[in-house]
Amino acid sequence: MIKAAGHWFLKSGIQEGLGGVARFYRSDLGQNAPVSTEITGYAASALFFLHQRTGESAYLDAGTRAARFLAHTAWDRHLGIFPFELIANGSTGLAYFFDCGIIVRGLLSAWRTTEDREFRDAAIAGGRAMLADFPRPGASCSVIHPILALPEKRPLDWGTRWSNGPGCYQLKSALAWRELFDVTGESVFLNAYESTLEAALANDPDFLPGAQERLQVMDRLHAYSYFLEGLLPVLDRPECAAAVRNGLDRAGGYLREIAPLFARSDVYAQVLRVRLFADAHGAVPLNQTAAQHEAESAASFQLRSDQLPGHAGGFLFGRKNGHDLPYVNPVSTAFCLQALALWQDRQAGRRLPSPQTLI
User: Fold this and answer.
1) Residue 176 near residue 166, CB atoms below 8 Å
2) What's the rounded Cα separation, in Å, for the pair 92 and 351?
3) In what order do the strands lie in the sheet with 323-324?
4) Which residue has the higher pLDDT, 85 or 226?
């Protein structure tokens, strides 16, 4: 199952020649969506995870191509930022705080694996840009604008959709700052993570359900799981362990309730990963029944060779009213393959890796 998912990353064409990775493959149209800088960041982390797990050089090569794309092509040197997607003239478009953090973490995965300093330097530049451009002036990092309009880097007005406003989910992206502190020793990065953590804990009680429409709540579960992931490095703090424990109860409950109408493979994987890491670090004992259900549910989204030639091993994004949605998704595949790999480790009694390996 995990080998098949890795094969999909290598052979399906979801990664293009320069190393960039498409947002998804549309099975009904038979074509990739445009390359996404954020998705390339996720893919880089996934490919290096696969290399570390298998030792296969093909994953190292593909991950390095993805990281070089991020460092050389995706980074706008003139503006000093990672745009959402690449625009022909480089002068218009958007940049997302969340995306930038995912890209920085992908570059740090590349540096830890290859020890190529260009990836470290690109990650530091990206982290400093996040500090300079996204926090609201005078608010430290407790209020972070989610989206900037380029080239002027003007904050967009906040909207009602979770990704259009600040919230606890931004803590996942702030993990980039914490990891940069570990790399550089610069306290400004650690302080930024701590400030984001404080704001995220304050927002936690209000983020779910956040919408009346059930399908929208499932989308918010995806974002809320980012918050839980962002807490993993600080599970030794009682308030953070309590937030994860309560958050898993809430997220698991909503997931089971809404799944017959709309289920996202990535949410199953995200909740399962948090359960496994929290249990491994002694913060929240594993709910074996819930974890088994989440593992089986995540696995049910993986394509077989008789379903979609050329895309076997990839994971579908979701399912509505029992019908598969036509998106073979790199993030869903990355999250699910890692969750199922960790689940196998737990079942076999093997030690789980550091939460720093979280894709």
Assistant:
1) no
2) 47
3) 262-264, 318-320, 323-324
4) 226
73 CB-side CA count, 13 A: 21
CATH of the domain at 49: 1.50.10.10
pLDDT of residue 350 exceeding 60: yes
Average pLDDT over residues 7-19: 96
Domain encompassing residue 122: 2-357
| Integer Cα distance of 218 and 36 in angstroms | 23
Q: What is the pLDDT of residues 257-272, one digit of tens each?
A: 999 999 999 999 999 9
| Residue 185: how many other CB atoms lie within 10 Å | 9
Measured CA to CA, the distance from residue 328 to residue 330 in angstroms comes to: 7
Strands 323-324, 35-36: pairing kind? unpaired
List pLDDT tens digits, range 131-159: 999 998 765 567 899 999 999 999 999 98
User: Which tokens is 235 given?
Assistant: 């599970």
The two beta strands, 31-32 and 35-36, are unpaired
Tokens coding 51: 């290399």
Strands 154-155 vs 147-150: parallel, antiparallel or unpaired = antiparallel
Nearest to 15 by CA among 76, 48, 63, 74: 63
Three-class secondary structure of residue 15 per DSSP: strand
Question: What count of residues does the chain have?
Answer: 359
Number of domains in the chain: 1
Query: Which residue type is seen at 192?
Result: A
Which of 259-263, 314-318, 354-358 has the weakest average pLDDT?
354-358
Torsional class of 255: left (φ above 0), alpha (ψ -120 to 50), beta (otherwise): alpha
Ranges assigned E (strand) in 207-273: 262-264
pLDDT at 256 over 70: yes
